[in-house]
Amino acid sequence: MRDLFATLPDDAPPPLPPGYLDSVLTRGRRSDRRRRAGVALAWVLVVLLAATLVIPGTQLLSRPATPSDRPSLPDRFAGYSVLTGTVSKAPAGRAIALYGYGNGELFNMFQSLVVGADGDTYRRVDALEGRGKPTALLAPDGTGVLLGDDRGATGDLLLVDLTTGRERSIPIGDPVGVRLLAWSPDGRYVAYSAAPVTRTDEFGTVKFVEPQVARAGTLRLLELSTGRSTTVAAITPAWTAAFAPDSRRLAVQVDQKAHLIDLDGREFGSVDIPAGRELAADVGWSPDGGVLATVPWLGNGPKDVAGGTGHGVFLWKAGAVEFVPVADAGPVPATVPDVVQVLGWRSAGAVIVATVDADGFVSLAEVQVATGTRQVLTRFDTGRNCELGWETCHVFDLHLATGLLLSDLTVRNAGRARRGPWPAPLTITVCVAVLGSGFLLWRRFRPGSAKP
To answer: Strands of 111-116's sheet, edge to edge?
Structure first.
């Protein structure tokens, strides 16, 4: 090796250009500054993404709305969104409406939603989704949702408090199939029908419980404060029901007759229901107690093999509302045409109904039964924003807080929908994506990562 170096020429290396060393040092410092700026920019982007995505997704300070003196209905319902939070994670307060929303053509993306009576709050009722979206009732004052279970026989009903998110299990004895019928105006009683379930579905995908109970169920009256259920054996099969405005009487349809009973199950009268028609579910008894509202069967009524109850069926089929007197006194209101569902009463002379136009858009209107004049109150957004934008949205299982309709209900200008904290899986996914992006940017711009 020494001999090899000895052969090298002794000539001095050529001189460096003037200012070369200073130029190299300056470039080195500039490259280091750029790398440091890149790292800082990467973390700034991470912080901004967290502020704009993760923080709205968690909404740790979300609180239920304070009840106002005048509950309100939005003049339009917001569209479908997978970003809607749940009642159990962030209760939004009392609700004006409970409904199913979505489509299932490509993916099963249905939601069970409540909409605030005191603001533009939307929440998914996750307890309903956990029980297979069974029949449910919205409390007259909008503070609770009661549900059964469509996956099979159940030994309890579940009461969800919309103001706290808490759930209360109400035992009903040996497991039976359940169909909820009506909630009393004072909020104290619920009428439901119960029957043994002769089929089982281990996967919980077939909605067979409610139709079976509709054809063979026996009436039960539940007192919510005590959790005690009273069976009215003579009322079988209990098809549909509605409480009187005093909450002490109940009309229950069996075949084509509405049996009028008290809370002890004693019958004090009956009303004939026209052929092919049924008592409007939950809301059929007028506020003055004078008439019962009836609607056409959705299918073939109580004798329908498939049940014909309408639970889980999209709002689409319009018919006429006809009124029958409870007693032979006073005038009977005229027929109200083009109604998909009766939702409640504003007064003894005004009813709120759901309608559907030729394009399938659902609206809620107030109808003056004496004159037939109607005023549209609100509309649903049923545009093509379901199934990731591939399908039109549909509305089903619609209920209004009937007690709030009789108060000083107003229609508010709908603002931006406040959907609460994102569902946990979505929040976790976004957090992982943000942190992963930040790590990759750090790896790219960290000092010493530049290629030689």
So the answer is: 122-124, 111-116, 95-102, 394-400
